[in-house]
Amino acid sequence: MLLDALLPDDAASAAAADAWALIEALYPLCRSLTGDGVRQTLDRIGERIPLVRTEVPSGTPACDWEIPREWNIRDAWIADAAGHRVVDFRAHNLHVMGYSVPVRQTMTLEELQPHLHSLPNRPDWIPYRTSYYREQWGFCLRHRDRERLGPGPYEVVIDADLAPGHLSYAESVIPGQGESDDEVLVYTHTCHPSLANDNLSGIAVAVELARALHQAPTKPRLTWRFIFGPGTIGSLAWLSRNEERLGRVRAGLVLGLLGDPGVLHYKHSRRGDTLTDRAAAHVLRGTDAHAQAKLLDFEPYGYDERQFCSPGFDLPMGRLTRSPNSTYAEYHTSADDLTLIRPAQLASALQTLARLASVLDANRTPLNLSPKGEPRLGKRGLYGSVGGGAPGAFEHALLWVLNQADGTRDLLAIAERARLPFEQVEQAASALERAGLLDTLDDTPESRKKGPPP
Ligand code: ZN
């Protein structure tokens, strides 16, 4: 059964408005790989959808990595001799390099310069910089402000803790109603501070899709698992703690950067021909509105698909973004603020995702129970009783499903072969199932292909 009317037009606009409100609320928080900014973010998400939180202690191994110490920052500034803050964390949290170690010192501009980061080509933007795995500290500032700095001395303070603590991630699970325990994973990163497109648009769109699935009148067939965690180390932590369930992952998406003016880009999984890849290609080229959507080949650079698609996991996960990371000027700067993202872009991303989710969830492998010759559809009320005319769209879809349902092709493959929208093929399959002419094989050829990891 299709997830009927998951985010139709009105609902998508309302969901996009809610996504926008969540982005506004989360924008000021100082998120990082770890720390209270992430917890506050998860608190707000938890007001919208059910969430199960996990706190992984610092030092815990995660594949070849380990959970870092927890970083929390209270305040930071560079002040001139008169005590005037020339760089102030309270004005913008991008001013401090993420994971800066604490510092409290008086120094000249010359001594300070190696710790300053600015963009000469974009003198009014503050760059976003981090140093997660090397102990150092730094400030990021507008190049215009940097050029105004006198020789000093300056009071330089970063009031932060870098200490044993935890990494926080959270999951929202919509249990499937089917007999199979197959899952669809959705991962979005939560580690960026005041940046709107990267990563708040991904968080907000994931929240709204999860909420739509939680509230859908028809329960999904598959289990849907949304994971909100920091980039790289978060997916590594989740993967290393969930190896036993990875054999259930039938499809999955990494989401991010979904609010900017760019067109949608789907990046294929490492395998390149998984259910997720086929469904995304079908949905993205299926409607005029997405005529300009682009399909990208897999590459081992990007977001958390790098971990999910590493060879030891090789999960059927692709990535959906608008402008891919580092391909737009505002990327990782203070110009990635609320002016960069548009509610209409969030809404159309949500609608595309809702359709993709419906396809992933409803896809199944049908088996024709009356394969010798065509079964008589008229006597079952499935075919127009007046002969002579060409079959209508529905009858056409019935014939395709019956012909292709030999147990080796799923509905998506049939839709592609017949050049019909998935939804039409699915409706025909449902009607044939109700008429007793079609059975559903539990697992698709896809999921049989990929057993649980050794
Ligand atoms: Zn980023």
Description of the molecule:
There is one protein chain. The chain is an alpha/beta fold and 454 residues long. It folds into 3 domains: 2-68 and 165-362, Zn peptidases (Aminopeptidase, 3-Layer(aba) Sandwich), CATH 3.40.630; 70-163, Domain of unknown function DUF2172 (Glucose Oxidase, domain 1, 3-Layer(bba) Sandwich), CATH 3.50.30.90; 365-448, Orthogonal Bundle (Arc Repressor Mutant, subunit A), CATH 1.10.10.10. It has helices spanning 9-26, 36-46, 109-112, 143-147, 196-215, 233-241, 275-284, 305-308, 343-362, 393-404, 411-418, 422-434, 445-449; strands spanning 52-57, 61-62, 65-66, 70-79, 85-88, 103-107, 116-117, 139-140, 154-163, 166-174, 183-189, 223-229, 249-255, 265-267, 294-296, 317-321, 365-368, 438-441. The strands form 5 sheets. An 8-stranded mixed sheet has the order 1-10-12-11-13-16-14-15, sandwiched between helices. Strands 5-4-9-6 form a 4-stranded antiparallel sheet. Strands 2-3 form a two-stranded antiparallel ribbon. Helix 7 (275-284) links the parallel strand 14 and strand 15 (294-296). Helix 1 (9-26) packs across helix 5, helix 1 (9-26) crosses helix 9 (343-362) and helix 10 (393-404) crosses helix 12. The protein is elongated. The two termini are 33 Å apart. The structure holds zinc ion (ZN). Residues 192, 198, 325, 332 line the site of zinc ion.
Helix content: 25-40%
Q: Using the coordinates shown, work out and report the CATH topology of the largest domain.
A: Aminopeptidase
Can you tell me the CATH architecture of the largest domain?
Answer: 3-Layer(aba) Sandwich
Mean pLDDT: 93
Strand residue content: 15-25%
Which sequence of strands runs across the widest sheet?
1-10-12-11-13-16-14-15
Give the number of DSSP strands.
18
Regions with little confidence, pLDDT below 50 for 5+ residues: 444-454
Give me the Rg, rounded: 25 Å
Number of domains: 3
CATH level 1 name of the largest domain: Alpha Beta
Helix/strand class:
alpha/beta
Largest sheet composition:
8 strands, mixed
Write down the overall geometry.
elongated
